[in-house]
Amino acid sequence: MPSPFPGMDPYLEKHWGDVHASLVTYARNQLQKVLPKDLRVRVEERVGISGSYRPRLFNPGVRVIERQGKRRRPVRGSVSLGVAEPVDIELPDEPETQTFVEIRDLSADSRLVTVLEVLSPSNKKRGDAQEQYLRKQLELLQSGVSCVELDLLREGDWIVAVPFDALKPRLRTTYRVVVRRAWQRFQADYYPISLTERLPTVMVPLRPTDAEVPLDLQSLIDQCYEDGAYDDIDYQSDLEPPLSEAAANWAAKLLRRRQHRRSRKHRS
């Protein structure tokens, strides 16, 4: 059974870890079929830590293991000492693995051509993970690599590579896609996407001499919904974060019409 929404299903945001992983893989598969013969698309990953520390890659060097056993014996002849009370400190989150898509050529140095990012909640929340993402975003643009950003999450900061203030209010939509070409430093393609619309097919840039290739976002989301068996979603439940009043009324009418939500007089 397909999603009742014509485009992005906001109820999928609750399952974003699974949806994100699937989107990246399905995008890889779709692009691989249309690339020039001397280009390859791969799923790559980075691991970062959220929290108050500076952004960094994480490689565990020390591991603490708990073993069952006897307690240590007190040292003989030890002097009674006053023990300071410890302060409880909340540690940063567990390391998070983020996947993304890279397109590289088959030259000896495997030159990076284009990066496709599907934004995650940690990217859009202020902290080290966001700083790490924004730093990478800048490095790509400065190093001659094209970048495609898919922002299909309602909650969080505006971090795509088009400034919020550069857009007219009608273009500040619920979802968005940004395409930056390496050879057009001061120009970007911006795809505004509302909740009521189908997701677009975006053109993915490769090298300046290559024809750009299409990426059908709606088919990717539809495949995520079907393969993830999300027909068990409870569309009676409220969304978090909530929709605006106008969007909530539209969604309620849509769900009742498509028999995913009971009418108010039948709700307990």
Major pleated sheet = 6 strands, mixed
Number of helices: 5
- Tell me the series of helices and strands, N- to C-terminal: HEEEHHEEEEEHH
Work out the helicity level: 10-25%
Shape: globular
Spatial extent as radius of gyration: 23 Å
Total domain count: 2
Mean pLDDT: 87
Q: Strands across the major sheet, in which order?
A: 1-2-3-4-5-6
Which secondary-structure class do the elements indicate? alpha+beta
- End-to-end Cα distance, whole Å, is 26 Å
Strand proportion, as a percent range, falls in 15-25%
Low-confidence stretches: 52-68
- Total strands: the figure is 8
Salient structural properties:
two-stranded antiparallel ribbon, six-stranded mixed β-sheet, 268 residues, alpha+beta, 22% helix, 20% strand
